[in-house]
Amino acid sequence: MGEGTREADWTLLLRLAFVPWYPIPSAHSHTQGVDEMTRNGMGTHVVTQIAVVVKDMDKAIGAYSRIFGLPKPDVMLTDPTNARATYRGVPTNAQAKLAFFHLGQVDLELIEPVVGDSVWREVLDRRGEGVHHIAFQIKGTDGVTDFLDQNGIPTIQQGQYTGGMYTYVDSEPQLGVMLELLENFDQDA
Fold first, then answer.
1. What span, in angstroms and rounded, lies between the C-alpha atoms of 86 and 168?
2. What is the pLDDT of residues 22-50, one digit of tens each?
3. Which residue, of 9, 21, 52, 169, has the greatest Cβ tally within 10 A?
């Protein structure tokens, strides 16, 4: 992948991470339109994670640790049995290595696909290493995915993790980047 493509990925990433997804009303502009847009959208505008798909986890961790001046994070291996994941509507035994750099309010997630059909492998094979997704913490996955599907953004992959679930949606045609929806389940419910 050429440097121009990598630079374009990071430029898009920075634009999306630091520009609000919809207008933030000022103290004098509380209008019904803004309230309706907030209520009818994804229900959040808080970015919790930016992910990069990589070919070699150890090499990527070394590079990010060196450049960011941070300690090397632990690497975890996803558990396909507990995840009960689906990819494009079909059960998958997809597995990936994950590592997280905690960067204030946003985590940088590194993903190395290991086995199985997955959106991680799809993106790495199609585009090579680079930005994979931007993640948002949400509530009500079914409602959010219904809203996105009605707006031409279908679900690609979905699965569970301890205490919650993740959903990747095909937002690239409209937004230029994939979105991940993360929902943590209330342990007291």
1. 10
2. 333 333 333 333 333 345 588 888 899 99
3. 169
- Global pTM reads 0.78
Sign of the CA dihedral with 118 first, then 18, 20, and 100 last: positive
Each residue's pLDDT tens digit, 162-185 = 899 999 999 999 999 999 999 998
Q: Are 155 and 145 in contact (CB under 8 A)?
A: yes
- Alpha carbons within 13 angstroms on the beta-carbon side of residue 108 total 18
Query: Per CATH, is 46-184 categorized as 3.40.720.10?
Result: no
What integer is the mean pLDDT of 72-99?
95
C-alpha distance from residue 95 to each of 31, 77, 121, 129, 155 (Å): 46, 7, 10, 17, 18
- What is the Cα–Cα distance from 143 to 155, expressed in whole angstroms? 12
Per-residue three-class SS string for the chain: CCHHHHHHHHHHHHHHHHCCCCCCCCCCCCCHHHHHHHHHCCCCCCEEEEEEECCCHHHHHHHHHHHHCCCCCCEEECCHHHHCCEECCEECCCEEEEEEEEECCEEEEEEEEEECCCHHHHHHHHHCCEEEEEEEECCCHHHHHHHHHHCCCCEEEEEEECCEEEEEECCHHHHCCEEEEEEECCCCC
